[in-house]
Amino acid sequence: MYVRASDIEDLVRELCIKAAIELPGDVALALLEASRKETSALGREILGALLKNAEFARERRIPICQDTGLTYVFLDVGRDVRIEGDLKEAVTRGVARGYQEGYLRKSVVKDPLFHRENTGDNTPPVIHIDIVPGSDVKVTVLPKGTGSENMSAIKMLTPSAGPQGVMDFVLETVRQGGPNACPPLVVGVGVGGMMDTAAFLAKKALLRPVGDSNPDPEIASMERQLLTAINNLGIGPGGFGGSTTALAVHIETYPTHIGALPVAVNLQCHAARRATGVLRGAEKPCSKERDTGSSGTGL
Question: How far, in Å, CA of 166 to CA of 102, rounded?
């Protein structure tokens, strides 16, 4: 089965634009539900404004937020697929085209320390590739802005800290972020592996539909406890107070060393943007089939 790199490029371009201007339906529904339950009048007003902003962006085909982020691209590549062309080059070209042709803000500098010159096309992206069963290529684009990212954190706990230590660190990270993380948040938590693994898991947790629980019942219980504790902080929508500081807490785990308990917290702002599409493998590289899912905010 074949998938052309040029088709992946086209899909990445499309998803970059879609992610920037269309709030996922699950996020919109979570904001709508939060607006019905929010105890603060000002908080309800802010949540309503966020929903109107999302609808306005979708209708006018303009970005939900001016910070269109550093582009993360997650690829699930079927083990039965042969990519015709250079996969990473295709993804990079797709990002460049999406940001240029979609008139999205370019925010990437080529040197983080001494020569912070803009690359001009929001490349290079951060690319994660996973080999999975099947003959499809699934592509997810996640544009990550710096407001919430700068409030994220990682810590190497010792095993004696246990689940409570993890929960305390997550809660303190959200408290320290306060209004700067642009709540209401989706809180991604990664536990396990080593430092780099925990950070990756926290980012990957943001790909899960809002409110989808971890299949492990003990971890799912931690997610619920943390969500309640975070919303009891009173930070509220926009940081102006209220009962909706987070829409969801998603925890992902991985085995770790006997002497380690790494935990990372990746905060995602209310503009929890992502877009996914699938390319079906074909018998011949000249044919293609694409599924980019439903569009719109679900409002």
Answer: 40
Rg, C-alpha atoms of the chain:
19
Please, which residues have CB within 8 angstroms of residue 239's CB and are 6 or more apart in sequence?
A: 178, 179, 180, 183
Q: Which of 250, 256, 248 is nearest to 161 (CA)?
A: 256
| Cβ proximity of 115 and 43 under 8 Å | no
Among candidates 108, 61, 82, which has minimal Cα distance to 8? Answer: 82
Model pTM score: 0.92
Q: Alpha-carbon distance 109 to 17, whole Å?
A: 20
pLDDT tens by residue, 65-94: 999 999 999 999 999 999 999 999 999 999
Please give the sequence-ordered ranges of beta strands (E in DSSP) within 204-273, or none if there are none. 246-256, 261-268
Q: Are strands 70-78 and 126-132 parallel, antiparallel or unpaired?
A: parallel
**DSSP labels, 35-80:** HHH---HHHHHHHHHHHHHHHHHHHHT--SSS---EEEEEEEEETT
Q: Which residues pair with 153 in a beta bridge?
A: 265
pLDDT tens figures, 114-150: 999 999 999 999 999 999 999 999 999 999 999 999 9
> How far is residue 148's CA from residue 155's CA, in Å, rounded to a whole number?
17
* Sequence spans of domains, the chain: 2-20+64-145+274-291, 147-268
Q: Is domain 147-268 given the CATH code 3.40.50 in the classification?
A: no
